[in-house]
Design goal:
The protein is mainly alpha-helical. Helices cover 73% and strands 0% of the residues.
């Protein structure tokens, strides 16, 4: 018996990603029932955030000077950071509960595992669907930013793949975690309260990280959201630093890649019984 057979691997009939496309198509068929509601949310969220925080609160911030914001208005400072934060929120929304539901409540993962689909195919198929949702939401966000007139450089076109990569840096590890054996979803509340919310507030989205106490700044710099926010903001203002941009992309890509490898292990352990 070969090492592959001992690991319980199943031969693919359509290539390593061909079978993942089949898993992706299941999510796509399921999404046809709910896409209208998600489109409204995708369009309203950036409009409300930029209108309330960027224009409303931003008017008060701009009155006290914009030197700490790099010389741009608060709206122009906020918008690209909020785009990266929105990618994180989209990724979380498409990862934790959908995976837990598929493996615990509806058990659609177990049904898929009884077909020629391998656990790795199921995992990659879900990530493909999450990528599609990220592209959709970030395209809408970019269009809203353009409508508000806050894009100061054509470099911001590259902000779309950067935001998608930021989302995948969250989706890949959260998928890998959500599929592990657990009786309930209580751990998800911990992730939201002590992970996602602090990241949303303190990773440079609403104010420069340099305004945080010096001892906590390294923690902020180590978070994936900060890298996405920093790069999207640099692209939007037309001041990307090549070395810094490569560092941001490398960090996010490494996190997503390592999580992809870890997820294939956790999916195999859960779905091969």
């Amino acid at each position: 018996m070969t090492a592959v057979a001992e690991a319980g691997a199943r031969p693919s009939v359509a290539g390593p990603w061909g079978m993942a496309v089949r898993a992706f198509r299941w999510w796509l068929v399921n999404y046809r029932r709910t896409w209208r509601g998600s489109i409204y949310t995708s369009a309203l969220n950036p409009v409300l955030y930029l209108g309330a925080m960027g224009l409303g609160l931003g008017t008060l911030v701009d009155q006290h000077g914009t030197a700490r914001l790099g010389g741009v208005s608060y709206l122009a400072f906020l918008a690209p950071g909020l785009m990266a934060a929105s990618a994180m929120q989209t990724a979380v929304g498409e990862s934790l509960y959908p995976v837990f539901s598929a493996v615990k409540w509806q058990q659609t993962y177990q049904a898929a595992a009884a077909t020629p689909l391998r656990p790795a195919d199921i995992y990659r198929g879900h990530l493909m669907f999450t990528t599609m949702r990220l592209i959709m939401n970030m395209t809408v966000f970019l269009a809203v930013m353009a409508a508000f007139g806050v894009i100061r450089s054509a470099w911001m076109v590259a902000g779309l793949p950067v935001a998608v990569l930021t989302g995948l840096a969250f989706a890949a590890p959260l998928d890998a975690f959500a599929v592990t054996r657990r009786k309930n979803d209580q751990a998800f509340n911990v992730i939201f309260r002590f992970g996602m919310i602090p990241l949303f507030l303190f990773s440079g989205t609403f104010f420069p990280v340099t305004q945080l106490p010096a001892w906590i700044r390294p923690v902020a710099y180590a978070t994936p959201l900060w890298h996405g926010v920093a790069l999207c903001r640099a692209l939007s203002t037309g001041s990307p630093d090549l070395l810094g941009a490569l560092g941001n992309v490398g960090y996010l890509a490494a996190l997503a890649g390592l999580s992809l490898a870890a997820g294939q292990i956790t999916y195999r352990r859960r779905l091969y019984v």
